[in-house]
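User: I'm putting together notes for a lab meeting next week and I want to include a structural view of one of the chains we've been expressing. I don't have a solved structure, so I'd like a prediction I can at least talk through. The sequence is below, exactly as it appears in our construct file.
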Amino acid sequence: MLPLGTPAPDFKLPDTNGKNVSLVDFKDKAALVVIFMCNHCPYVVHIRAGLAQFARDYAAKNVGVVG
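Assistant: Thanks for the context. Below is the predicted structure for the 67-residue chain, given as structure tokens.
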């Protein structure tokens, strides 16, 4: 595990539309939350609406969220 405060390593991951997103796409954000999940996991399906609301709520605070 990396120590708290360690700069995030660069990444390149596909979004749900097949477009790749990377760390640089969030360079203007004050913070970035990265959630590793599987879209068909029953737990993720159960909390999907809550995660989407979390992302909307924190977008107003200049926080990026990628899952």
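A couple of points you could mention at the meeting. The two ends are 19 Å apart (CA to CA). Strands lie at 12-14, 20-22, 31-34, 63-66.

User: Perfect, that's what I needed.
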